[in-house]
């Protein structure tokens, strides 16, 4: 969140609308139409969205949010009959109204009381409109709002929608006992990829961007933060004001509220956390964010978002991190691992350029954000040392090949340009190919330039050209060839076996991978130790004495444990000796390491350490730490053990995660009974492939093999 600033003019306004004369304003050249997004029911291609304003009241005792949405729009075609927005069954629409925007009027220039957002009538100048809600997919619905017949192109107007929403894919309410401090309720949102339609009615597609503002009322003692460039607090009204001055897609509108305090950790950064976590967060991040922001600016141009703040969320946050502009969300459990924390911070910093400033226009090309952000992350990380960068890359590419083996080389989800079928949740297509195959393609492009600094210059120009817009792969590749005309003359896009088209549309592993030999000083000891433990006959004394794991880097340890996982089930003598040598050491290490050891325990049915699996799942509520263990428990002989743990911990789990685990547990069984009347009853984003995608796969993708930083 940005530092407190004076309230913008009016309630929430930002930009002045174009002045209009007595006659209809002349039409500006129409913007290029975005590619169709089959994951959105909206009529976004018929309208230009200038701004959205949210008036919100948080009601923790009811686990609900009352909202008033104001959209500033212009029609792109004469007399559109209706406006269609994306919504969700968890969101209840109460009313819709139409209001003509006055010439030159700032967006959302009328006032309303957030305390009455759900019940107060529209402004007197607004006309009530008819509306209906229809089914769309398992992950959303469509809201159709009838429009006045006389609506002309390029004349601004407002649509006002009043609604309430409860627990849904985007919003998770936590009772005080599910927070670290156990003192106050907590709520956070997670919009990626198509969840924010349960937060507010919207054009829920990355192709559409707009500025936004928000007025939020919360109970006394609850700190509210949003992904906004400006913020202020009106104490006498108990109201927070937020404003995002740059256009962003709907999925990057984010809110968090709870018992949060902050400390400055740099000239433009602060960290937010619950009071008991703040000292640890400060010690881990002080000076770190500014270092990487400055490094990224030196490569890719100015950081345009003003503030770069970080908020640490409770363990039930469903992913590792989310790059919301100005306010990155990170799961608090990552504080245990310095290496994974730094990698995630650098990755989310990179998203400020790749993903936030320039966004993939459809979810079929998520690699345009994730592949470029991963490349930028490693380009920045190379300043720490080539060996460590190669170690981290080797770890991720190992996971990519493991995923490839699971899915088969002909699986369509291994393409960079994935064909998203209607009805399939885009979140189901989030996998390592998005990150690592995308990274390999970007790395290959950088190698064509000869010097990575030349590629840095290209990426800087690419950002400058396309910032605040959404792009497709052809935009990137055309810009690349135009920036390097000598490469265009050489027809590098058609080089046999490495054609750009093949990179994008061929299934299977990357067509080329980086040379990681500079990491051999760190990866060679891993290979040596693995061979000692898996070569027959086992010399456990030699294996145990060869390496002190406490002296290794985290990525070395997880790479070693991943090798053992790949070789499981292991002979009983080996798993017994491994436990004797390492189990107590691993208990004191971070969750990234512990989960891998516990997966080895489960895959080898090693009952002496099984109690540690229960203890881990009772304390870890993130998708990345729960689903891999539940998948392994249900694949083997321990499904009843998994059911027992699930029923004891279900109320601590995010509704999306709870439903995913239910699906895992119900495979081969009668459907599980309903577990909570407040649980979401519609499909929500899951990191396992299901629905139509699952027909092409032989199994779910373990989250152990997926980078779940968005």
UniProtKB/TrEMBL annotation:
Region (Disordered), start-end ranges:
1-42
The biased composition feature labelled Pro residues covers 25-37
Similarity annotation: Belongs to the peptidase M1 family.
Q: How is the cofactor bound?
A: Binds 1 zinc ion per subunit.
The protein's required cofactors:
Zn(2+)
The organism's lineage? Eukaryota, Metazoa, Chordata, Craniata, Vertebrata
Binding-site list for Zn(2+): 347, 351, 370
One GO biological-process annotation of the entry reads:
proteolysis
Give the InterPro entries listed for this entry. Aminopeptidase_N-like_N, Aminopeptidase_N-like_N_sf, ARM-type_fold, LTA4H_cat, M1_LTA-4_hydro/amino_C_sf, M1_LTA4H, Peptidase_M1, Peptidase_M1_C
Q: Catalytic positions? A: 348, 435
Any GO molecular function: zinc ion binding
**What is the protein's given name?**
Uncharacterized protein
Keywords per UniProt:
Hydrolase, Metal-binding, Metalloprotease, Protease, Zinc
